[in-house]
Design brief:
Layout (H helix, E strand, L loop, with lengths): L1 H21 L6 H17 L4 H21 L2 H17 L6 H14 L4 H14 L6 H15 L5 H4 L8 E2 L3 E5 L3 E7 L6 E6 L8 E7 L1 E2 L8 E5 L2 E10 L2 E8 L4 E7 L4 E7 L7 H8 L9 E2 L5 H5 L16 E3 L17 H11 L4 H4 L6 E6 L9 E2 L2 E2 H20 L2 E4 L9 H10 L4 E8 L9 E6 L5 H11 L3 H14 L5 H18 L3 H5 L2 E7 L11 E8 L3 H7 L2 H27 L1
Parallel strand pairs: 1-6, 2-13, 14-17, 14-18, 18-21, 19-20
Antiparallel strand pairs: 2-3, 3-11, 4-5, 5-9, 7-8, 8-9, 10-11, 12-13, 15-16, 19-21
Helix pairs in contact: 1-2, 1-3, 2-3, 3-4, 4-5, 5-6, 6-7, 13-20, 15-16, 17-20
């Protein structure tokens, strides 16, 4: 009975806390103090119970919110004190690392003491490696080290036995004439520090990353030339006993962006450079490249004689071992004829009109020349499954039907990220779109839900979201937990500053409307319109064109599933998607001309 009363006390206190946020009660400080007293009583009623640690954590949250509303230092100090009580009195509880993280953020954002904040983030990295705040603490430590120009805290920076070091795995990359994406996977979360070296003599600008507390197998640590597109060479090696250095030699760097994703942990580097002028012969050669190179290949290591000729910067350690770089999809952007150097736009159009017939995409005037269709999942990743159906097979079938329809209706070149049952990482799919110079990116998926009653279709574009259901869907497609999705919001806030969010939202609206209106009669009743939504999908991060993700139906719903298994229905769905894309192209052209 005592335990039940304690639970009731906690629930009542939590209910009152929620009212402080949602009603006029929150405008008066005395009401917040009533909430403080409620959680204090709960803690004192059972200081060793499960509700004790929750009550202390909530006391920290209340005082933190009071500081935001009333801007009193005493509230800030109380919040820090209660959060520290959580980690000091209950170090084994799952809330301990959350409390430490909250203290670190308060020292960083409220007290403006980054060194003090780093101490608490370091405790998480050292003592809570399996906690849900580990990854984000690593990110913040790396940022603090860079911005404050200070060495990392001792527990993070100290040398560790080889068995405890994070392993840096072979690098993957995709490169075109003006874009390169490099993905560096590690065996676990790692702290890295970046630096851009300015041009010196004949050497172009170079970008390197130092991975702290890391190790790379000698087999993977010898520089090799790439000489394809923007990326010229990758050098990877053991810089010190516990630091791995990855150097990117890039022909020209105009902008770059670095971010990391969890499960598995990988650091993604997007580099953009100036487009080189091309001759007509080289342009024709690029145009004749095959549409899709599906199989990764290993670059051969240089001979010892060749590697001896490699010259490293004075600031870098000499690397003498071998390196293996996995090259997946290296594409070159196809430059339209009207961009050939030395011609005016009107001259180029006149030559095209007099020479060959223009595609519909070219006639529309905005250059929708390449469309990427991304059938989700594949290979070892089946996606959602129900009633004997697999998501990866359904979306591939729809994608294959969509290609000839789109090519005929838009005149654009249509490329599939995968043509067969193969596995592609999420960041790989976006890289394929970017290196092909795509103008539109569509990722196809089938939804799932614990309840078989849920049905309908919904369309997503990349953005931050507070919608619980949208976050659930994104977490499933990203193959991570919903808790990690909330951490991703902080990462995305800086990544998406240059994303084509508005155009993606417009594209989503046209395609979604076409899908909804395309189902007539009984089909329309069966497919509920769940709307256009925003969520942080990994596969859309870094896309340089309008990009959307379609959840076409619920495989877990019997009626939806039956339709999805019907070839004529798949054909109708492909036609509806194509009509939506065509409507977007027409609408965009009209807006442009006006």
């Amino acid at each position: 009975i005592g335990s039940l009363n304690l639970e009731q006390q906690y629930k009542q206190a939590k209910s009152y806390y929620n009212k402080l946020h949602s009603t006029h009660l929150g405008t008066k400080r005395d009401n917040w103090l009533n909430g403080v007293r409620a959680f204090r009583r709960c803690y004192l009623s059972g200081p060793q119970s499960d509700f004790a640690v929750r009550s202390l954590y909530m006391l920290g949250r209340i005082y933190s919110n009071m500081n935001k509303r009333f801007n009193l230092d005493m509230d800030l100090n109380e919040a820090i004190s209660y959060y520290r009580d959580v980690s000091d009195l209950f170090p084994q509880d799952t809330l301990a690392d959350d409390a430490l993280f909250a203290v670190g953020k308060l020292y960083l954002n409220k007290k403006h003491l980054p060194k003090k904040a780093a101490v608490f983030f370091s405790r998480i990295v050292t003592d809570y490696r399996s906690g849900d705040k580990y990854h984000l603490s690593l990110e913040l430590l790396q940022t603090l080290s860079k911005e404050q120009n200070n060495s990392l805290p001792g527990p993070v920076h100290q040398r560790t036995p080889l068995g405890k070091l994070t392993y840096v795995l072979p690098v993957k990359y995709w490169s075109s004439d003006d874009y390169t994406r490099v993905v560096i996977k590690t065996s676990g979360p790692a702290i890295y520090k970046e630096r851009l070296l300015e041009k010196r003599g004949e050497k172009p600008r170079r970008l390197y990353l130092d991975f702290q507390g890391s190790y790379i197998d000698p087999l993977y640590s010898k520089p090799i030339p790439i000489e394809n597109g923007l990326l010229k060479r990758i050098r990877t090696g053991q810089f010190t006993s516990d630091v791995v250095r990855v150097v990117l030699d890039i022909e020209s760097i105009s902008d770059y962006k670095i971010f990391s994703l969890p499960d598995p942990y990988r650091v993604i580097i997007d580099v953009r450079g100036a487009v080189k002028p091309r001759t007509e012969a080289s342009a024709r050669q690029k145009h004749n490249l095959s549409r899709h190179s599906a199989k990764p290949k290993q670059q051969l290591a240089l001979s010892r004689e060749e590697s001896a000729k490699e010259v490293l910067d004075n600031s870098l350690a000499e690397i003498t071992e071998t390196v293996i770089v996995l090259e997946d999809f290296k594409k070159s952007r196809i430059t339209p004829q009207n961009r050939i150097e030395g011609r005016t736009t009107s001259m180029a159009w006149e030559e095209q009109i007099n020479g060959t017939s223009l595609s519909l995409a070219q006639q529309l005037g905005l250059g929708i020349r390449t469309i990427i269709i991304d059938p989700g999942h594949g290979g070892k990743d089946p996606g959602a499954s129900a009633f004997g159906l697999k998501e990866k097979e359904i979306v591939l079938n729809i994608a294959k039907r969509l290609v000839p329809i789109l090519e005929e209706q838009t005149g654009a070149k249509v490329i599939l990220t995968r043509k067969s049952d193969v596995f592609l990482s999420l960041e790989e799919r976006t890289a394929i779109a970017n290196t092909n110079g795509a103008d539109i990116f569509i990722s196809l998926h089938i939804n799932a839900h614990p309840s078989p009653e849920v049905h309908g279709l919904e369309t997503y574009y990349l953005n931050l979201s507070t919608n619980a259901e949208a976050m659930r869907v994104a977490a499933f497609e990203n193959a991570i937990s919903t808790h990690q999705m909330s951490d991703l919001q902080d990462i995305l806030s800086s990544i998406m500053k240059n994303s084509k969010i508005n155009e993606s939202a417009r594209l989503a609206g046209f395609v979604h409307n076409s899908l909804c209106t395309g189902f007539q009669g009984v089909q329309k009743k069966r497919f509920k319109n769940l709307g256009v939504k925003k969520a942080p999908f990994y596969v859309l991060i870094g896309a340089e064109m309008p990009a959307i993700l379609l959840e076409l139906a619920f495989i877990t719903n019997p009626k939806d599933s039956k339709n999805l298994d019907n070839t004529s229905f798949q054909e109708m769905m492909a036609n509806n998607i194509s009509e939506g894309i065509l409507s977007y192209i027409h609408s965009t052209t009209v807006s442009f001309q006006q």
